[in-house]
Description:
alpha/beta, Rossmann fold, 5-stranded parallel sheet, 3-stranded antiparallel sheet, 9 helices, 52% helix, 15% strand
Amino acid sequence: MVIAIDGPAGSGKSSTARLVASRLGIVHLDTGAMYRAVTLKCLREGIAHTDDGALGVLMSRTSIVFEGSGSVMRTIMNGEDVTDAIRSDEVTRHVSEYCVPAVVRNALVEQQRLLGSRNSVVCEGRDIGTVVFPNAELKIYMIASVEERARRRQKDFAAMGIHKSLIELRAEIELRDRKDSTRSNSPLRKAEDALELDTTGLSLEEQAGIIVERARALSGTNDN
């Protein structure tokens, strides 16, 4: 089974996908982490998001895998654990730019589809149900108010020892939304057959529970 979770930044996709994967005992395929890893590598090597030639070379020598399960999933790029590094402020500011080039997206989508063909997966991002896995058995489109998303981002940053104001985070989220929804290549949009899930005011346990219940109903399994 492939469970596709889409939605804007800060809507709770990654945390929810991790918990859903843990409860169902399947693989969490974090596409956002993959794009962040590529962004980190490009920033380190000084490669512009407009340089398709250099990006193509970089993608040909970049391997991104996931190790662990549930809340202890780690992102490994070319043997280096970049789980924390890809959540930096700098990567967050630039990741939308490096999501755009077709050479990057095509290479990562190929890897994602390969993983999905070999395992039951929960996969989250911004074009999973529309582009990566258009035939996914279960599609979820998660939304939340900008205020809620800013509070979640602030909590995430605080856990890393980074203190940012809600005003600053709101502005970043609104800018990210505009970039993601207006880009020419695979813009953020809800799949026609996706279930819309508003997570404003919901706990992580509650939103994951809704998805797990749907998945079990589709697969004919129960809670035990």
